[in-house]
Amino acid sequence: MTEKTRVLINECIGQEGQGVTLKGWVKKVRHLGSISFVLLRDRTGEIQCVLEKKWAGLKLETESAIELSGIVKKTQQTSLGVEVLADEITILSSSAPLPFELSKKTLNAGLDQVLNNRFVSFRHHKINTIFKLKALFVNAFSDFLTDKGFTQIFTPKLVSQGAEGGANVFTLNYFGKEASLAQSPQFYKQMMVGAGFERVFEIAPVYRAEEHNSSRHLNEYISLDVEMGFIEDFRDIMRLETELLKSIFKEIQESFGDELAEYKAEIPIISEIPELTLKEAQKVLKDVYKKDSPVGDLNTEGEKLIGRHIKEKHGSDFVFITHYPAETRPMYTMPNKENPALTDSFDLLYKGTEITSGGQRIHTHGQLLQSFESKGLNPKDFSSYLEAFQYGFPPHGGFAIGLERIIYLFLNLGNVREASAFPRDCDRLIP
Amino acid sequence: MTEKTRVLINECIGQEGQGVTLKGWVKKVRHLGSISFVLLRDRTGEIQCVLEKKWAGLKLETESAIELSGIVKKTQQTSLGVEVLADEITILSSSAPLPFELSKKTLNAGLDQVLNNRFVSFRHHKINTIFKLKALFVNAFSDFLTDKGFTQIFTPKLVSQGAEGGANVFTLNYFGKEASLAQSPQFYKQMMVGAGFERVFEIAPVYRAEEHNSSRHLNEYISLDVEMGFIEDFRDIMRLETELLKSIFKEIQESFGDELAEYKAEIPIISEIPELTLKEAQKVLKDVYKKDSPVGDLNTEGEKLIGRHIKEKHGSDFVFITHYPAETRPMYTMPNKENPALTDSFDLLYKGTEITSGGQRIHTHGQLLQSFESKGLNPKDFSSYLEAFQYGFPPHGGFAIGLERIIYLFLNLGNVREASAFPRDCDRLIP
C-alpha cells in the first residue's frame, strides 16, 4: 500500500489540475443546495473544499480532524485563488460541540474561557499567531546573540535556598534539603561569563512567588537572559540590547504581516533609544504631571506617564531609565564612579512598562563582599558565588527581558496571561 | 576619550604590523632572561604575548583578566603564526591561586573538584568545549525542526499534582495548593499539536525525584521534546528522529574538529537506523549472551549488549527497540493494531544507552479513557488533558531526547554530570 503524500494548504497555490491529499481541521461547513463547502484549516492556512452531491449524507462536525483528497481548481471566490474538489474524505477524529464559536475573526470568549479551553482557543488564528510570534521572537533572539559570539547556557532552576536571598521564592524539599526555584539565572550567568565563556544567554523559566494577581505579572515566565564580559561600562549593555531589539523586530516585520494588523501592532522604530536618569524621570513626573515617585524607583503610573512623555517628545516606544540608587538595586550592581550612591544600572520601558532590568555588575571580590555586607547579607550564605570572583573576573554586565511581557505589550494584548500558553498565577495551576 | 576597540585573538591572524588591544585571561607566564612570554586566552583562542624588559617588575598571576595592547608580529614558534609585542598592559582583575592546575592538556582533577569549582574548571579548553557543543546541538535541533514547520513552545514546569501520576515527583506548596515539577511536557506538547500547531518542540528542564545516584542520571536535565500531528504511524516519528540526528551531527562535524579528537568522539554514521522489536532484542540477549531480561523491558546491561551487538553486526551506534508491551509504557501510548498487548512505541539506544523514548499516542477520547482506566487511573484526575481529545485530535506521536545524556555519550565522558553546567543529584544542590 502506498500512502498518499500530504500536501499543505499553502502548497496548493498554482497546483490547478493536480490531485492532492490535505489533512487538517474543518473550520466551517456551508450547504448550498446539494453542494457543501468545507473550509479546511491546517498549520499553513485555510482552503475551500467543494463537496458535490455524492457527499450529501456526510456528517462533518466543525473542528473534526479530516483527510481530504481531491483536485485543485482555480476559483475567483477565495483569496487563495484555488479550491479543492473533494474526491475522498476520511474523518480522522470527530469533534464534540465547541465551548465557544471559533470561526469569527475575533474570538468571542472571556479570558478565563480562553485559558481554561486552550485546546480549543489555540486553534483560533489570532491566538495561534501569539505563539508563532513568540517562537520567532526567541529564534531571532538566539540567532542575533549566537552570531555575536554568545553561547547559549542551561543553568539549574532548582537552587540552594538563600542563593538569591529573600522573599517571593517557591521552596521545596530536595532530598531532605530545602531548595528553591530560581528567580533568575543571575549568579550562574555571571559565573559562566567570568569562567571563560565571556558572552552567554539563556532562555528558560524563572519563578516569582508573588501574591499579586496583576495583568502584567506571571508566577512562572520565560526570562531571556544575557550577560557579557570585558565591557567598558554599562552603556555597552544598553547598546547591545538596542541592537538586539532592532534585529528581532526586523525579523518579525519580515515574517508577519496581516497578523500584526489584526492586533494593531506596529513594529517599533528603533534608532537610538532615548535615556533619562531616574532623577530626571522623577523630575519630569513632578514638573509635567505633578506626580510624586517612590524613593529610588518609578511606580506603575510613573512608568506609564514617562512612556507617554517620551513617545510624544521623541516618538520612541522605548526609553532607558538609568542610574538607580544602590539602595533599590541588588547587591551585585556596580556603583557609579562619580556618585557611589547611584549605580550603573538601567531599566528599559516599552510602551510605559518595564521589560528589562540590567546594568554593570561588581567584578572584584573585595568590592562584592563589601556590597553584600552593606545590604546586611552574610557572605557565607553566598560562598559558591562569591568564590568565583577570586579568579580574575572581568568587568561585565547584562540584562533580562521578560518574554511574555514584551509579546503582550507588542501585540496590545490586554493581559500578559494571553502571551503564555498555560499561564501560572495564584489561582491558576491547571491546565 | 576614545576607547580602543577590542580585537579577538583569532582576529589577529594576518594582522602583522597592526596595533591591537586584546582582552582575556593569562593562561601561562614563562620567563626567559629579561623577557616574559604570556599566553593569553579569550573565547576565540590563545596567543603568545611578548613582554620585553620594561615589564620586568610586573606581577602577573595566572588566570588574571587583563587588557593588553601591542603590535602583531609574525612568528614561527606558535601554531597561530602570530604573536603580540606588548606595549600597554592593564590588570582588570587579579587571580588568587587556583584550586588546581589549568594549563595542562587534560585537567588533573576529580569529578567533585571539577563540579565544585566550575568557575575555574569551565576555563579549561576541554571542558569549555562540552558546553559549546551543547549550545550548538540545541541550535541545530531548533534549526532543523523550525525548518520543517515545527513551532517552539514554552510550557509550564509548575504543574498540578497528579497530572502525570505517581512516583519520583518533586512537590511544593503553590499558594496553598500542591504543585509538582514537570517530569516532562508530554501532556502539554500533545495538547498544542492537537490544538492546531500540528508540530511543536520544546527545549526545557524536566525533573525526576529519583534517589539513585548513577553516572547516567540527573535529577534536573534538559529535555529536547518533539511532537508531530497527522502522522501515518509511529515510523514517521522514527524517520523524523533519524533525519534530525543526521542533521545535528552534520552541523557538529562542520563546527568542531580537533576538539572532538581530544575526546576521541566520532561523528556517528547514520543512514537507516537498525531496528529490533523488544522481543527480538530479548531473544538476542538470551541466544547470544545467555542473559535474561526483565518483563517488557531491557536492563542496563541488556542495553549495553544490544548496543554492542548492533555495532558489530551493522556498524551502527544507534538502534531502535520497538513494540514495547502496553504494561510497561505510559497510558497515552498507542496499542499496536495487530497485537494490542504491544504498543507502537520505541526507545532509541546510542552506544548501548537509552537516549529517547517515543511512539504514537492514542488520539481518540474513548480509547484514551479506556487506557487510563485499564491502568487503574481515575480520568477525573486528568480531566484538563482528556478534554482536549474531544475536539478532533489528529493521529500524532513524538519523542524526547535527554540533552546531557546524548552529549555525554557522544563525547565519551565518564559521567553525565560532566555535561551539565551545574548538575543536580541527590547530594548536589550547590553551586
Automatic annotation (TrEMBL), chains A, B:
Instruction: Please state the protein's primary subcellular location.
Output: cytoplasm
Q: What positions does the entry give for L-aspartate binding?
A: E164, R208, S357, R361
| Keyword entries, A-Z | Aminoacyl-tRNA synthetase, ATP-binding, Cytoplasm, Ligase, Nucleotide-binding, Protein biosynthesis
Q: Where is this region: Aspartate?
A: 186-189
Protein location: Cytoplasm
According to the UniProt entry, where is the signal peptide?
none
Enumerate the transmembrane spans: none
Q: What cellular-component terms does GO give this entry?
A: aminoacyl-tRNA synthetase multienzyme complex; cytosol
Q: What is an example of a GO molecular function annotated in this UniProt entry?
A: aspartate-tRNA ligase activity
Please provide the Gene Ontology terms (biological process) for this protein. aspartyl-tRNA aminoacylation
Annotated residues that bind ATP are located at R208, A209, E210, R216, H217, L218, E354, G402, L403, E404, R405
Subunit text: Homodimer.
| Reported function | Catalyzes the attachment of L-aspartate to tRNA(Asp) in a two-step reaction: L-aspartate is first activated by ATP to form Asp-AMP and then transferred to the acceptor end of tRNA(Asp).
The record's annotation in NCBIfam families points to: aspS_nondisc, PRK05159.1
What is this protein identified as? Aspartate--tRNA ligase
Could you tell me which species this protein originates from?
A: Peribacillus deserti
Q: What is the lineage of its organism?
A: Bacteria, Bacillati, Bacillota, Bacilli, Bacillales
